Amino acid sequence: MLAILSALQSASAVDDRNGRIPNTELITQEGKKVHFYDDLVKGRIVAVSFIYTTCQFACPLETARMAQVQKNLGDRVGHDIFFYSISIDPEHDTPKALKAYMEKFHIGPGWTFLTGKKTDIDLLQRKLGVYSDPSINPDGHLPHLLIGNDATNTWMRANAMDDPKFQARMIGEFLDNFKHTDFKAESRKKTGDGSPIANFDPGRYLFHRDCSACHTVGQGDKIGPDLLGVTSKRDHDWLVRMIQRPDTLLSGNDALAKALLKKYNNVRMPNLWVSNDGLNVLLQYFADATAAHDKQPSSAANASEGAAKPAGTSGGSARPNR
Question: How many CB atoms lie within 10 A of CB 80?
Fold first, then answer.
């Protein structure tokens, strides 16, 4: 998952004063011209991804995952850690388009989106070792994430789809030589006796791996809708298609899929290629999580009415109306 970059090739077409990292000129979402090394990377801990805003496959999930990483790192992002997302489709991704994309994903301070000249961005990817042949998959690129600490010359190529908590620890602790790690707190954590493995819930695991960046079950909307009660609210065949091939619903002008797309800021649900087995455990997880939620009062007021009104009735837990 992580490959240490032994060396970054030197650039010949850009100002490369440090001998390793290109100083490519880019433009921020605010329309400001910056140079990749001098203004963005020099002396910093950074996470660099390459995306494009009209991507229908991995990019939305990449961005949502990195938003979780940003949340895990807290106010260190923008202070000693900086995130950069660079468009590989600069002809479409103007500063205005990038700014709108950031708003969709509720991007916080310390994360800059950038565009520039296509030839310069392609060269930058090659020099950083994260270039993908556009014909490699429907996305036109792989979800590489370059993370590094320029001050210590430590660089890694990661997967932007990796677990957010793991990613946050790699960026915030390993790259920083564990300066921000509370080892006393770590030593107090119990390793357990293996029981969590015996109680492993594959549906819960898949949800947190593939869905939780954009959805919750009973905690309200995020980037996408709350999925509480989704198995009873939606037609089964429609739900199967939405999970396995959401692009076919949109290309077929499905009215509900189009309405949801509009409601949730035109953020497309990516195609995650969920298998039939994966689909079944996800649907079961949604149903089980909804049933567990409905057994609990949603507020103190509901709790006091519990004896008179069973959970799940008009006086019990409310589900999002979508």
Answer: 17
The mean pLDDT value of the chain amounts to: 81
* Mean pLDDT of the 260-280 span: 83
As beta bridge partners, residue 158 has 145
| CATH class, range 202-301 | mainly alpha
Domains of the chain, by residue range, sit at 3-180, 202-301
Q: Left if phi > 0, otherwise alpha if psi is -120 to 50, otherwise beta: which for 121?
A: alpha
Listing DSSP states for 38-55 in one string gives IIIITTSEEEEEEE-TT-
Q: What is the pLDDT of residue 182?
A: 58
CATH class name, domain 3-180: alpha beta
Task: Flag whether pLDDT at 177 surpasses 50.
Answer: yes
H-type helices in the chain, by residue range?
58-73, 95-104, 118-128, 164-169, 183-188, 195-198, 202-206, 230-233, 236-244, 246-251, 255-263, 276-294, 300-304
Cα–Cα distance between 216 and 230 in angstroms, integer? 11
Of 18, 58, 35, the residue nearest 155 (C-alpha)? 18
Is it the case that residue 15 has pLDDT exceeding 70? no
Adjacent-strand bridge partners of 86: 50, 114
